[in-house]
Fold these 2 entries.
Entry 1:
Amino acid sequence: MSEEDSAEATIVTGLLHLLEPVTIEYDQRIRAVQLAQAELADRIDVLTKQITDCVAETEFVDVSPYLQKLVNSRKKIMNVATTLNTISERLARMNRQAQNKVGDH
């Protein structure tokens, strides 16, 4: 192994040790947000059903705009969940690549 390879391996190892705790923390936080969003989406579904049932029983209040807001909120939550999943996958891929790079040296 040349000095250049040794220096590169040292830098890669140092970066891996520096970034690994950050990626683990972000991964944990992303998972927590995903769980919270899934729970919120479930609650929105329950609330939507309750409002729909209520509307079927009474006709004096137009709740259609509120139902649409709930539906739109759920769509936004799902979009954020998709984005967070993509970020989580990228972090995992970066972590694997860094570990492979260290393993190569």
Note: Residues 3-104 form one domain.
Entry 2:
Amino acid sequence: MLKRFVVLVVANYQLERIFIKLYQDCGGIPDANSEEEWTKNLNNSHYQNCYKQKGFSNKDYYWTSEKNDSASSWYVDFVLGREFWLSKSVKFYALCVR
């Protein structure tokens, strides 16, 4: 079961590989960066069901270990298939990887 953490300590390249593989395995568009791509991911029922079956939530985001600056880090939104940065003070899920 995934738990909430504020900090994720893992090499970002490992996370990037996991996220891209998940997008590809589920038929989503990785690194969606436009409203058109977000809408395609949102309306892709196979993609939406697949990432949930793999244990990810559609109600929250996931931190990466990549910092944007001293006050913010990058997160992943599986619902829309996007990555963006936000204040580190916000509590999101974290994916632990070995």
Note: The helical segments are 12-26, 35-43, 45-53.
